[in-house]
TrEMBL record, chain A:
This is ABC transporter permease. InterPro entries: ABC_transporter_permease (IPR051393), MetI-like (IPR000515), MetI-like_sf (IPR035906). Residues 84-298 form the ABC transmembrane type-1 domain. The chain crosses the membrane at residues 25-48, 87-107, 119-142, 169-194, 223-243, 277-298. It is a multi-pass membrane protein. It comes from Agromyces mediolanus. Gene3D superfamilies: MetI-like. The keyword Ribonucleoprotein does not apply. One of its GO terms (cellular component) is plasma membrane. It is found in: Cell membrane. Keywords: Cell membrane, Membrane, Transmembrane, Transmembrane helix, Transport.
UniProtKB/TrEMBL annotation, chain B:
InterPro entries: Bact_solute-bd_prot1, SBP. Pfam families: SBP_bac_1. SUPFAM superfamilies: Periplasmic binding protein-like II. It comes from Agromyces mediolanus. Gene3D superfamilies: Periplasmic binding protein-like II. Residues 1-27 form the signal peptide. PANTHER family: ARABINOSE-BINDING PROTEIN-RELATED, BLR3389 PROTEIN. This is Sugar ABC transporter substrate-binding protein. The keyword Aminoacyl-tRNA synthetase does not apply. Keywords: Signal.
TrEMBL record, chain C:
It holds the Pfam family BPD_transp_1. This is ABC transporter permease. GO terms for cellular component: plasma membrane. Residues 1-29 are annotated as: Disordered.
Length: 309, 448, 317
């Protein structure tokens, strides 16, 4: 009897132990497929990039290990700094404007004081569905001073609008395209956050006689700070990675958009038209680090304010 | 794809990532050298066996030529791919060469880009297949463009001797003589713009190909290459300065329309006469006919204006040929195709489809010279254009990294255009950037 | 009831709860609040928002108007109104048949990339995000750190090494070169992770385990249904991302056979701006319109699913 019971117990115990072991590793069965593809399409290229950035390959003379030399060159490269400065300017001007408009729009829709508010929600969001390539082609046509919309307006009103694709305006014109594409998207993020603010907070404030603007300032905005930070981080990353819009516009504004207009364009042109793969990789890695640090700072400052509150 | 080969490939990635640098090193083109030469009989035999080749090109004439080739050699399957025009094409070509796989067997290449691919060993030297015996078939200037360092790296297809296309109606209306010198050209430019502030003698926002061709005509030789790696870049030579000083008078006074060539606005300007002339390659008539059909009968062609009255001078603008890739595993058929494409049969189809030939026989045929173009009001345009091909100033060469140099033109000379300032400064900046690149890439560069 | 906003709400709710773990706030039904505070509607505010809507819609209107014009009328008529001839049908037919109908082929390619790429990305992100939320396994923290860290590296910067690697593997010029990279959605992973930790009660999983259900069976029969709103949200974002994908196909594909619409359209546009090319701006514009229509329709169509999915999700909560 005892024998049977002991033999009966043993397999049960082991199977449970095995189950617990399997339990411990079962997560990997779920994560595995993602991580495998991830390793192939993201980790391997990053590692490869780091490797590339330590070498120098020349059209004449072959390949040599140069250590961190490419990084030194990049940090002393005025073109790199000019490109970086341009996206920082873009970031400082365009991102607040875009997020500001998005915030106002979301508050307006949330306020229940609009006629046809669902129409506004959908129509302002619609440009997000337009591929960046199509958006840029479209705006590029409209920016034309002769046969584009700008030209039409000039003719119709006998005015002389500044040429959107001239050197001094082209960054603003790109900012306009990006704002157009993403203002609705950010608006929806804010709006969704506003919708989950508990009603009792409002009611209490309204009973205290707080006006609409005080409610916005003291309740609504603090409550969606998290969403604002997230939107901010995505916009920062987006600005640093600016590429499609200027690269497509370059074909119609070759003198206004240089080959090093943004850091990403610089890296692209270095490798694809200049064959300087190694230097290009170094610039890419630097930009990755800069982006990560700035996104982290935005997140940190956002959450600190929240903690203070 | 079997599982095992997949695993091996994945393992390959890991190794590739780990040995990052060495991978880049071994990506230089290799293989196929055993096919570096063949007799005419061997090539003819290869064309009778089942095989296929891939051709990358964007010239509209390629399609009918490929059809004719496949009809003549039914066992050969030619896959024609348009991977982009000009720079996009070269970028993709360069990528495939860098990657060591994926390049076509035959690629279209413009003369300016050829040295880059020839000197880096990406294109096969065709002398081993007997290409050097074809010299007499082609004009001197195009043959000069494809023979580099004692090798032949492409066969010429079309050529672009420059001429001046102009709107006869605009000159007539203003009572202007058709300019024969650049001084007269500038004077006409002032008159046209004075009569109508929306009208210009020509458009120009800066274009590397145009600039180099104009310097070529002025007798400048800013680029010199010896032994493939000793490079001289000098945009302060007499010819370059002569062009820049002349063209400055138009650019600094904003007498050229700020319209990019090939843009919608450009076609519009060519159609309504607000762009009165085009100094451009001889392949232009077909483009005018298809792009600006409304202006039929209004355009004429004349020799390019010159610096000295009565001393004819021209340059090549655009045009190119086709090359066999070193990566190709089917070089005999590729070369066989090239001989068809760029030989008499291909050239005839090319010319019939609006191309401007580089073959002497076609250029001098009665039919070709005597052709009266309805679009040009019955003018025998080819007489003018063929004469231009004979007036091309000899001695020009491009850089072994010309596609890169051209890609940074907008950053440098383009800025002079954007600011309507001295072109000499822009050229100096272009020189500096090109020299720097050459040094970075290991060339011995003399910047002067 | 709200439309796409409801979907994004899922994100923010999930994120909000994650951040303020402990002080979890109840999700409130909007109708309650609407009922309690009756607001005056403001004409001024509506006008201001009208201007913003005009800004958003004007370019789309421009696109619609100009896709009805012939190549010639494009340059000779006012951009914001129709010209004499209404050539929309002609243009559509030309767009679909130009160059042996390559547009249709590109359209099919794009659909393939969206179905396999976005679908696969959503599935992988859901599996992985769910595991991060619900299983404690060795290396869990490392997984998350690596994924987040890699997001900051600019995608275009990785283009060259990815291209070189893929050509070694013989993947360039095949659909896999587009599909494989789009299978990864770190944002989707993050979203599912925060969503799952809230929406799938651990007690439920424990109960399923006691019933003897395998982990994968539990996932597909129980958890996935609870995750539906998050799943659909991720699907939306990945669909948009793959539909808009431009840069990667641009460098990975050298031959037009496998182009998606974005790259194809730009090649049409580039063709007109280079020597010897035929100007087909009217087709570029009509093609752009045709490119936008399906994704706008998909947006509106998928909304219903999100709505019901969300409703179900909030009841279960």
């Amino acid at each position: 009897m005892t024998t049977t019971s002991s033999t009966a117990r043993t397999p049960m115990r082991t199977s449970r132990r095995r189950a617990r072991g399997r339990q411990r590793w079962i997560g990997w069965a779920f994560v595995g497929p993602f991580m495998a593809v991830f390793a192939l399409v993201l980790v391997a290229p990053v590692v490869y990039s780091i490797g590339l950035s330590l070498f120098r390959e020349q059209l004449v003379g072959g390949t040599a290990f140069v250590g961190l030399e490419n990084y030194g060159t990049a940090l002393a490269d005025p073109k790199f700094w000019e490109a970086l400065g341009r996206v920082v300017l873009f970031l400082v001007v365009q991102v607040p404007i875009m997020l500001g408009i998005a915030l106002v729009a979301s508050l307006a829709i949330d306020s229940a004081r609009l006629f046809a508010s669902s129409f506004f929600r959908i129509s302002i969001f619609l440009p997000y569905a337009v591929p960046a390539v199509v958006a840029t082609l479209m705006w590029g046509f409209m920016y034309g001073t002769r046969f584009g919309l700008i030209g039409n307006l000039n003719d119709a009103f006998g005015i002389e609008l500044p040429a959107p694709l001239s050197g001094s305006w082209v960054l603003a014109s790109i900012g306009n395209i990006v704002t157009w594409e993403f203002v609705g998207y950010n608006m929806l993020i804010f709006y969704a956050a506003l919708r989950v603010i508990p009603t009792d907070l409002y009611e209490a404030a309204a009973l205290d006689g707080a006006g609409a603007f005080r409610i916005i300032r003291n309740i609504k905005i603090p409550a969606i700070r998290g969403a604002i930070v997230i939107a901010g981080i995505f916009s920062v990353i987006g600005s640093f990675q600016l590429f499609n819009e200027p690269n497509i516009l370059k074909s119609i504004a070759p003198n206004a958009i240089s080959t090093y207009f943004t850091p990403n364009m610089y890296a692209y042109n270095l490798s694809f038209s200049g064959q300087q793969f190694n230097y290009s990789a170094a610039i890419a890695i630097i930009m990755g680090l800069v982006t990560a640090v700035i996104a982290y700072v935005v997140q940190l400052s956002g959450s600190r304010k929240e903690a203070v509150r | 794809m079997t599982t095992r080969s997949t695993i091996r490939r994945w393992a390959g990635v890991a190794v590739a990532a780990a040995l990052a640098g060495s991978l880049a090193a071994c990506a230089t083109p290799s293989g196929g050298s055993e096919q570096g030469s063949a007799s005419a009989e061997e090539i003819a035999a290869a064309l009778q066996k089942e095989s296929s080749i891939t051709v990358w090109g964007w010239a509209p004439q390629l399609e009918p030529i490929v059809e004719a080739f496949e009809e003549k050699y039914p066992k050969i399957d030619v896959k024609l791919e348009n991977v982009g025009t000009g720079n996009d094409h070269y970028t993709k070509l360069q990528n495939a060469i860098k990657a060591g796989t994926g390049a076509p067997d035959v690629a279209q290449v413009e003369y300016y880009a050829l040295p880059q691919f020839a000197l880096s060993g990406a294109f096969a030297d065709l002398t081993g297949f007997g290409a050097d015996e074809l010299e007499d078939q082609y004009t001197a200037s195009t043959w000069g463009s494809v023979s580099i360092d004692g090798g032949v790296y492409a066969l010429p297809q079309d050529s672009g001797p420059m001429a001046m296309f102009y709107r006869a109606d605009v000159f007539e209306k203003l009572g202007l003589e058709v300019p024969t010198t650049w001084d007269e050209y500038i004077a006409a430019g002032q008159a046209i713009h004075a009569a109508d502030p929306n009208a210009y003698i020509t458009n120009d926002v800066g274009d590397a190909g145009f600039t180099t061709s104009m310097i070529w005509q002025a007798g400048g030789q800013p680029y010199a290459v010896e032994n493939g790696t000793d490079v001289t870049i000098d945009f302060a030579d007499e010819g370059s300065t002569k062009w820049a000083d002349t063209w400055n008078q138009l650019v600094e006074n904003e007498l050229v329309a700020p319209i990019s060539s090939w843009s919608d606005e450009w076609y519009q300007g060519l159609g309504d006469g607000s762009i009165a002339t085009l100094v451009i390659g001889a392949w232009m008539p077909g483009n005018l006919e298809s792009g600006v059909p409304d202006a039929a009968g209004k355009w004429r062609v004349a020799p390019m204006p010159t610096y000295e009255e009565g001393v004819a001078a021209a340059a090549e603008n655009g045009g190119g040929g086709d090359a066999v890739l070193e990566q190709s595993k089917n070089k005999l058929v590729a070369y066989g195709f090239l001989e068809f494409l760029n030989g008499p049969e291909g050239a005839a189809i090319h010319a019939a489809n609006g191309g401007f030939p580089s073959t002497v026989a076609d250029l001098e045929s009665e039919d070709f010279l005597g052709y009266e173009s309805d679009y040009f009001g019955g003018q025998k345009i080819n007489e003018v254009l063929v004469q231009a091909s004979k007036d091309v100033v000899p001695g020009w060469s491009y850089l072994p990294f010309q596609t890169y140099a051209n890609s940074i033109y907008g950053d440098t000379v383009g800025q002079s255009y954007a600011n309507a300032s001295d072109l000499n400064e822009g050229l100096a900046a272009w020189q500096e950037a090109s020299v720097q690149y050459g040094i970075d890439q290991g060339f011995t560069v003399n910047g002067k | 009831m709200t439309t796409e906003a409801t979907v994004t709400e899922a994100i923010t709710t999930a994120r909000g709860t994650e951040r303020r773990a402990g002080s979890r706030q109840p999700r409130l039904h909007r109708s309650v609040r609407r009922g309690s505070t009756v607001q005056r509607r403001s004409i001024l505010l509506t006008i201001v928002m009208g201007l913003l809507a005009l800004y958003a819609l004007l370019p789309l209107f421009w696109l619609l108007v100009n896709s009805t014009k012939t190549q010639r009328a494009l340059f000779s008529s006012f951009g914001l109104w129709f010209s004499g001839d209404f050539a929309l049908w002609d243009n559509i037919v030309q767009t679909l048949t130009y160059h042996d109908g390559e547009f249709v082929r590109w359209f099919g390619n794009t659909l393939l990339y969206v179905v396999v790429g976005a679908g696969g990305a959503t599935l992988l992100a859901t599996l992985a995000g769910y595991a991060l939320a619900k299983y404690d396994f060795p290396g869990r923290r490392a997984v998350f750190a690596v994924v987040l860290g890699a997001v900051a590296v600019p995608g275009t910067a990785l283009a060259v090494p990815t291209f070189l690697m893929f050509s070694q593997l013989g993947l360039t010029n095949t659909p896999w070169a587009i599909i494989l990279p789009s299978l990864i959605s770190p944002f989707g992973l993050y979203l599912i992770w925060v969503y799952a930790s809230d929406a799938v009660p651990s007690e439920l999983l424990e109960a399923a385990r006691i019933d003897g259900s395998g982990e994968f069976r539990t996932f597909f029969t129980v958890s996935l249904r609870l995750l539906a709103p998050g799943f659909v949200t991720v699907l939306l974002f990945t669909i948009v991302a793959t539909w808009n994908n431009y840069f990667l196909p641009l460098i990975m594909l050298s031959e037009s056979t496998w182009y998606p619409l974005t790259v194809g359209l730009n090649s049409w546009n580039a063709q007109a701006t280079t020597a010897g090319g035929e100007a087909i701006y009217h087709l570029v514009i009509t093609g752009s319109l045709l490119t936008i229509v399906p994704i706008v329709v998909a947006f509106l169509f998928l909304q219903r699913y999100w709505q019901s999915g969300l409703a179900a999700g909030s009841v279960k909560q």
